[in-house]
């Protein structure tokens, strides 16, 4: 082909379409064939599934690690009275026909039958409750079983405070509602929505939320009118306020809710279904929408999830009751319902129908093909029979009433248990130890980690309250992992050799070096300068870049802002308001005498306001009012922002703050409460180091001209 030609490519995720055209755009022929085609290939897959499996393996491995340490603690005392106790447990799930079977009896104890044990303690919660409340000497093996269950299912780490505060759960709505009011006001001042803060009304809402005789839909219907007074000036404003309150109430009781409405996020109608889920599903659903949430939207989502967990906990542990005590009551309620169901089955004249009804319960308990059957699925299956009999059979009517209130046949193991914080489990562990250490003094052995004895007084407490920091990763060095398995997922840095336990962790593991290695692994690189680390999303420089770029994209009456206008808006509006609305901009333009009437603003992604803000500047202005204006301290402030973004562990963040010598102790304390997250897409070098022909960097160009980032990026030398 001696004549000039062009090649067109259409690049997709699993194909590349191509064609060859002449200078007039007509498709050419090459070697007698039309130069047009496509190359298909397998679509690239993310490492999400692989990472999920690896995370699960790591979590289960750490459970086994804690249980092994627990066994070592109990090994000698138990072996004195039952030498084969742990061996029987190890081989309990091996068939007698298996060559590895050791021939030991498959019983819990060597001196009594399992039937006797389960008669006294039908569930592990019966045993735990007795150990906490009975002032007598228990079999050390019974104590082991109870503590084994506590350590294995120790709960989440979403809450703070000592275990002594978690003897029973209490729900306080006032603080959460006030935080949500502040966040709603920050996100959208024109919404003017205020959740109630009156103590009497909050108490009424709380009583409805913790009731266990109401279905979730009935709870939602009762609480939403109590949650706020609709103060909108127009019918449209009141409707918007109502939508937010209704969706929030749905989320809090565990129903599916439109989280875009709750977080005040504008989304296209086609993706609303991605934003509609229950808060139980939030762990799986949030990663899909997180990038579209504004900073305030993320805070709203976090606060709602925390409040939902508090409500769940208050339902799981009613005020004035212990966790195990409530679980025993649920067991008794299930037992009572089972007798009712059996009576209903026996009342059936058609034996086949009776067997079908019984089968719904069997599936509920045993699952189907190793998959659990939820309470909702069980209710749906059973209601097919119960509804038909409700008018003629009083047993069916009684069952239907219990199903309608979602109280029929409660299970002890449900997803709701994920709301239990570790402090609840630690509280019961401490109660067991305090009752039994008079008979077994070694149970009350003091925590070897002196600085943690305030919250974790006993050595065994560390098996519940200690967790390996996320930034340490697998408890193996990179070199050892490479040598033993060829894998490359470890980054831990050691201080000393030897087995790692919760009691010697800081003597064996270098936290700071491991955290630094973690950051280097996780930090992404610049979209345009490969290899250059990106700035934190809350960096002062990056937020300034985002604001200026959005201002340069904005149009006032279809005209770009002049540099002097933009600079004034930046200083007078963005530096004065944490979240800037279109009304703020319009008011400033009119106050400056540039427009007599409210000007039309266009060019923004959100027609109501700016997505970007100088929120970090406002945070530091409150804490470091003088330093934030000092150019010589700007680099240190950027380091503080970087540490806040990368170190979720407050202890490490506080330690890093010690490196900034000019900070006072009071300022360090305030700064340690800052928690930033997220990364930008650009590096410090790209924004500040490269200069155009006029000697301006991208940041200079955004400030001094009306060009946006994409226009400046095309300048020579940038």
What secondary-structure arrangement, pairings included, does this model have?
Blueprint: E1 6-11, E2 15-21, E3 29-30, E4 33-34, E5 36-40, H1 48-81, H2 85-90, H3 114-120, H4 124-133, H5 140-152, H6 173-187, H7 199-209, H8 216-227, H9 235-253, E6 257-258, H10 259-262, E7 276-277, H11 282-289, H12 295-316, H13 323-346, H14 351-366, H15 375-389, H16 394-404, H17 422-436, H18 462-465, H19 478-485, H20 505-508, H21 511-522, E8 534-536, H22 540-553, E9 555-556, E10 559-560, H23 563-574, H24 582-591, E11 601-602, H25 615-623, H26 634-646, H27 650-657, H28 665-671, E12 679-683, H29 684-688, H30 698-704, H31 709-713
Antiparallel strand pairs: 1-2, 2-5, 3-4, 6-7, 8-12, 9-10, 9-11
Helix pairs in contact: 1-5, 4-5, 4-13, 4-17, 5-17, 6-12, 7-8, 8-9, 9-12, 13-14, 14-15, 15-16, 23-24
Architecture overview:
The chain has 718 residues and is mostly helical. It has 31 helices and twelve strands. The strands form five sheets. A three-stranded antiparallel beta sheet has the order 1-2-5, with no helix packed on it. The longest helix is centred in the first third of the chain and has 34 residues, at 48-81.
Highlighted features:
mainly alpha; globular; 718 residues; three-stranded antiparallel sheet; 6% strand
The percentage of residues in β strands lies in 5-15%
**Alpha-carbon distance between the termini?**
36 Å
Tell me about the largest β-sheet: 3 strands, antiparallel
How many helices in DSSP terms? 31
Mean pLDDT: 89
Strand arrangement within the widest β-sheet reads 1-2-5
Radius of gyration: 32 Å
Shape: globular
Regions with pLDDT < 50 over 5+ consecutive residues? Answer: none
Query: What is the structural class?
Result: mainly alpha
Q: Care to count the β-strands?
A: 12
Helix content: 40-55%
């Amino acid at each position: 082909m001696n004549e000039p030609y062009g090649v067109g490519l259409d690049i997709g995720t699993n194909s590349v379409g191509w064609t060859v055209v002449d200078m007039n755009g007509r498709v050419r022929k090459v070697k007698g064939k039309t130069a047009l085609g496509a190359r298909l290939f397998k679509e690239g897959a993310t490492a999400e599934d692989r990472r999920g499996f690896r995370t699960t393996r790591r979590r289960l491995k750490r459970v086994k690690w804690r249980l092994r340490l627990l066994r070592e603690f109990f090994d000698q005392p138990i072996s004195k009275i039952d030498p084969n106790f742990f061996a029987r447990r190890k081989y309990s799930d091996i068939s007698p026909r298996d060559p590895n079977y050791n021939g030991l009896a498959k019983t819990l104890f060597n001196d009594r039958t399992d039937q006797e044990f389960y008669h006294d303690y039908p569930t592990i919660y019966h045993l735990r409750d007795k150990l906490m409340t009975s002032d007598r000497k228990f079999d050390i093996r019974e104590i082991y079983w109870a503590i084994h269950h506590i350590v294995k299912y120790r709960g989440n780490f979403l809450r703070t405070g000592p275990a002594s505060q978690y003897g029973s759960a209490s729900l306080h709505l006032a603080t959460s509602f006030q935080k949500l009011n502040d966040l709603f006001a920050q996100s959208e001042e024109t919404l003017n929505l205020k959740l109630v803060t009156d103590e009497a009304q909050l108490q009424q809402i709380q009583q409805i939320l913790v009731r266990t005789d109401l279905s979730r839909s009935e709870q939602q219907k009762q609480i939403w009118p109590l949650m706020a007074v609709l103060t909108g000036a127009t019918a449209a404003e009141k409707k918007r306020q109502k939508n937010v309150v209704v969706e929030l109430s749905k989320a809090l009781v565990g129903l599916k809710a439109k989280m875009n409405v709750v977080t005040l996020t504008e989304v296209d109608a086609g993706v609303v279904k991605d934003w509609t889920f229950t808060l139980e599903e939030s762990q799986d659903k949030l990663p899909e929408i997180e990038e579209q949430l504004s900073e305030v939207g993320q805070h709203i989502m976090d606060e709602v999830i925390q409040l939902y967990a508090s409500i769940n906990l208050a339902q799981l542990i009613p005020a004035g009751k212990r966790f195990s005590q409530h679980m025993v009551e649920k067991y008794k309620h299930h037992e009572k319902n089972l007798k009712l169901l059996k009576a209903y089955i026996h009342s059936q004249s058609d034996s086949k129908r009776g067997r079908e009804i019984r089968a719904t319960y069997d599936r509920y308990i045993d699952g189907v093909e190793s998959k659990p059957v939820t309470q909702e699925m069980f209710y749906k299956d059973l209601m097919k029979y119960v509804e038909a009999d409700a008018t003629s059979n009083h047993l069916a009517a009684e069952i239907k009433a219990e199903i309608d209130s979602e109280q029929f046949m409660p299970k002890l193991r449900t997803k709701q248990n994920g709301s239990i914080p570790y402090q609840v489990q630690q509280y019961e562990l401490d109660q067991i130890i305090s009752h039994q250490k008079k008979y077994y003094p070694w149970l009350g052995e003091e925590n070897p980690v002196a600085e943690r004895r305030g919250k974790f007084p006993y050595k065994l407490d560390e098996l519940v309250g200690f967790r390996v920091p996320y930034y340490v990763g697998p408890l193996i060095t990179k070199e050892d992992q490479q040598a033993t398995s060829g894998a490359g997922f470890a980054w831990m840095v050691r201080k000393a050799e030897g087995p790692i336990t919760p009691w010697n962790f800081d003597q064996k593991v270098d936290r700071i070096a491991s955290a630094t290695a973690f950051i280097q692994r996780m930090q992404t690189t610049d979209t345009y300068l490969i290899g250059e680390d990106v700035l934190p999303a809350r960096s002062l420089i990056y937020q300034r870049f985002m604001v200026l770029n959005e201002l340069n994209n904005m149009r006032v009456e279809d005209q770009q802002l002049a540099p002097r206008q933009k600079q004034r808006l930046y200083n007078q509006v963005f530096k004065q308001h944490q979240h800037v609305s279109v009304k703020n901009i319009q008011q400033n333009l009119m106050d400056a005498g540039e427009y007599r009437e409210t000007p039309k603003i266009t060019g923004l992604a959100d027609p109501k306001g700016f997505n970007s803000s100088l929120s970090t500047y406002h945070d530091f202005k409150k804490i470091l009012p003088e330093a934030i204006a000092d150019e010589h301290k700007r680099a240190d402030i950027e380091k503080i922002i970087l540490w806040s973004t990368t170190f979720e562990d407050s202890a490490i963040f506080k330690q890093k703050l010690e490196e900034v010598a000019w900070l006072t102790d009071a300022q360090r304390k305030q700064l340690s409460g800052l928690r930033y997250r997220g990364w930008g897409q650009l590096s410090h070098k790209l924004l500040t180091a490269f200069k155009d022909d006029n000697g301006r960097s991208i940041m200079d160009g955004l400030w001094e001209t009306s060009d946006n980032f994409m226009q400046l990026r095309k300048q020579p030398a940038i």
